[in-house]
């Protein structure tokens, strides 16, 4: 199963639409994404009762760098 990550542009649209009090369903329809995707994104990055796209993108990039298989060999040993 393939999927796409949310882009900064999509996150910015979520932020604007949330500020305009759009429902999760209407945001999902506008972005052509699943309601659960929007819901998880907002709950994962909801700081002080507000969603901020730039902060959410930074969190995503930080987590993305940390994911994956750990390095087996270290530069010190070679």
TrEMBL record:
Transposase IS30-like HTH domain segment(s): 2-45
Single GO molecular function: transposase activity
UniProt xrefs under InterPro entries: IS30-like_HTH, Transposase-Integrase
One annotated Gene Ontology cellular component of this protein: cytosol
Gene3D superfamilies in the record: Homeodomain-like
UniProt GO BP: transposition
Pfam families, per database record: HTH_38
Name under which the protein is recorded: Transposase
Organism in which the protein naturally occurs: Staphylococcus aureus
């Amino acid at each position: 199963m393939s999927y796409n990550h949310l882009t900064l542009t999509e996150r910015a649209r979520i932020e604007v639409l949330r500020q305009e009090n759009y429902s999760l369903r209407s945001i999902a329809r506008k972005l052509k994404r699943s309601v659960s995707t929007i819901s998880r994104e907002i709950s994962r990055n909801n700081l002080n009762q507000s969603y901020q796209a730039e902060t959410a993108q930074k969190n995503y990039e930080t987590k993305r760098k940390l994911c994956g298989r750990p390095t087996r060999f270290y530069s010190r040993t070679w």
